[in-house]
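Hi R.,

Here are the chain sequences for the assembly we discussed:
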Amino acid sequence: MNRGVLLFAHNNDAVDYVKQGIYCAEHIKKYLNLPVSLATSDDVKGVHNFDQIIPTPNPNKKQTRNYYDGTIRQNSLWNNHSRTNAFSLSPYDETIVMDTDFIVQNKNLNKVFESKEDFLINYKAQHIDFESTYTNDMKYVSDTGIEMCWATVFYFKKTDRVKKLFQMINHIRDHWSFYRYRYQLLQKTYRNDFAFAIAIHIMNGYQKATWPKQLPINLMYITDKDVILNKTNSQWKFKHESGLISSIENQNIHVMNKIALNRIIENE
Amino acid sequence: MNRGFLLFVQENADTDYLEQARLCAKSIKKFNNDPVCLMTDSKTDLTGYDEFDIIKSIPGEDLAQNSKWKIENRCKIYDVSPFKHTIVLDVDTLVLENLESYWQFFSNYTVFYLTTPTTYRNEAVKSNYYRQVFVANELPNIYCGIHYFARGKFSQQFYDQVKDVVQNYETYKKKFTPHNTQAWCSMDVATAIAVKVLNCEHMITSKNSPINFVHMKGKVQNWKGAFSNWLGQIDYFFNKNNELIVGNHLQKGIFHYVENKFINKNIKESFDA
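And here is the predicted structure of the full complex:
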């Protein structure tokens, strides 16, 4: 069985996702020792560390979102629609898909390959300040809605069931206005976390079930309102929106402040 | 008769409990072969209401003469039930599956009440919003929406005590619920007081009960928004397999819909089919 990591990158005015992908791939290779493929609609210029570059169109030309860098806001295109094609695009039998702003800093994710499960994803995420409470906003897709999951990182094998899951996710993506209404989502923008949560819910017969199980990692994150103070080797220091300062080392981290992350990448 | 379901209906000015009881009985019949007994004072001609196998009148003095809600006579269920083993359901409930596993679990008890209802998302109810009198007075947190009793000495004693609380609620409420006192008599509070008087909570409840019911009061749905009426927040329908979906969640077991407007043409048709 060949194994690897699949990343998606579609650059916009605010963030150079390809550059992030190269940085992300460096960490994957260092800690997980896995091949990395990049699915992208952009030209990958110069030196890179990807084993394969998979050209894929960018189906979104109009959805935007706010990108924060602490208190500074920038509105830009949000090209997150191609991730739902991970099943068909992946060159691997067993694939880890992750956001390019997810920084791997230990070997824990390799435990997915010891699992017999065909799909693994996180239902919970933890802000690293450990003060932000796990509210309904984080637990459900909406106050009255179904349980949330986090498509930041997920693992899959190419089984029939997972193929159907991705068919369902693509269907939801293509009929987003209906599903957004049906599942009482307040925001209009298409979001993979929600589409995955809805598809899993439907596949499980509209109820909580034991499939899919959680990834063998805690999904730790900082938000885009948090600021990166500095990064040395594998140690990151943050100043949070609350004013709290924290640091981590050897811990995987989802750096949602993508603009600050790109500054770190440029300085390394 | 060995076992069956008992439903209680006393007519009042506000709610068509008989219609609710008919729907409840039909839902029981859809998944279960056990007989349904209706205990009622209804003046309606019940001929042809085949969903009820047995119809019994409310015996004795009307304890609800001065009551608007008219639930007081429900304390006579033990006297009226024709069954050795009885499951009592609120009439604003729907049974959505075969309850054989419920009967098996209840057979471990003489009397059993549930204490931990769930939301439509199948999560334990966290809020005490509607249970202030229970919390303030340390009453056992029992729900009468669904409960069980078997004929026997203890059950007789237990329901005699419930009757005494209902008949003398003014006295009992002062003694057992001095804080957040509930002016009117409800079966939940009256039964909880009886449990406290008899010190039998350990005999009639279980914190690890696998049996539960979905409780659709708006403010116990673990929502951030403080919504009184769930019907205004989420929708519901029967899917093509005739399964009840509420807020995109499949419902099973016993569904306590609470709000009268829940019953619509589609719901009735799904149980008439």
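The radius of gyration of chain A is 18 Å. The CA atoms of residues 89 and 132 of chain A lie 36 Å apart.

Let me know if anything looks off.

Best,
T.
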